[in-house]
Amino acid sequence: MNNKTAGRCNFYNKAARHYWAQLNIVRSTHSTRHHSLPLLAQPSIVSWDASSFFGLQKLIIMAAVNGSSDLSSEMEVDAFRRLFPLRYHEYHLLKSVRPDARKLGSARDTTLALGAVASADGSALAKIGSTTMLAAIKMEVMTPTVECPDEGSIAIEFHMPPICSPLVRPGRPAEAAEVISKQLSDTIFSSGMIDLKELCLVGGKAAWMAYLDIYCLDADGALFDAALLSAVAAFSHLNIPVVSLNDDGRIVLVSEDNVRGKLEKEPVNKEKRKLKLNSPPFSLTCILHKNYILADPTAEEESIMETVVTVVLDSYYQLVSLYKPGGPVLAHTSVIQDCVALARRRVKELQNVLNEAISDMEVD
């Protein structure tokens, strides 16, 4: 046995012993007074090589894919998933299925609830699988800029508090938060969803500033998709407040009691109004791994398979933006076309989800 072969066997020996130890830890942890899981004896293989070691992996994975109901097998699969996450997922990919039983091109269940924050002028709670976003909009009157005297403005901030993920530490801002904030701003402005002139109150004197804050409550992958969906839903729910000119010529908010009664000054806008949205954008994030395309990845999939592509389309299925922050897999033209095709199908789904949420809100 040469030094290279001996080194490989030594590696697999150590890995196999570590793996077997982890299995026994999991089994002992899940043992109960009424259901005891016996510890596993280490197999009598003196020298583990690649074939014997990966043969062990295959046996465990096949038990997972075939849906074994034995509790001990489930614990062993759980340990294998933590020790060898990439191989665990690749065995599922060979069967064109994912660990959560989704097809490769299928997105997770998506729900929307409008008006989630009573104190906000517009709000929405969006869930894609376990990924959860809360978006809230607060309107304030500002003086428009000299360059754009007849336009309002929008400020977008994305927040990732420590409750959203164990990877986010208290006191340390998450790196992804700033990136997603910039992505959201670029997407909303470049899509032309909002005509900023609709936010003008008095040309050159007063306009609306819309502060959009999005809080990530659970970060389980595809954060940008859920954040954009919550932002679009919050703007769909937005009610622009009634304002009036005071004696000093300044714009002031009008309370609901004053709206019902008689005002000394004629209000600038006589009733709360909706903001017209022009072809709202929606997005789909895909994972590229070898020859596979996985739509709407979970956080686990994103951490294992690092090549991400996000496609943003408007309501007319026109491309707004395409975002690929590096990764080892090259995005060839055919791959991009496949991602865009998946995104078009996803846009239809998200439009239906948004329309249902709006309908439910009108009924309530």
Describe this structure in words.
The strands form four sheets. Strands 1, 2, 3, 4, 5 and 6 form a six-stranded mixed beta sheet that branches. Strand 1 (110-114) and strand 2 (122-128) form a beta hairpin. Residues 32-49 and 259-263 have low confidence and may be disordered. Helix 1 crosses helix 3 (71-83), helix 2 (50-65) crosses helix 4 (85-94) and helix 3 packs across helix 4. This protein has 364 residues and is an alpha+beta fold. The protein contains nine helices and 14 strands.
Low-confidence stretches: 32-49, 259-263
Strand content: 15-25%
Report the mean per-residue pLDDT as an integer: 81
| Helix-strand sequence | HHHHEEEEHEEHEEEHEEEHEEH
Helical coverage, percent range: 25-40%
User: Structural class, judged by helices and strands?
Assistant: alpha+beta
How is the biggest beta sheet arranged?
6 strands, mixed
The count of helical stretches stands at 9
Distance between the termini: 76 Å
Total beta strands: 14
Round the Cα radius of gyration to an integer and report it.
Answer: 27 Å
Described by the principal axes of the CA atoms, the overall outline is elongated
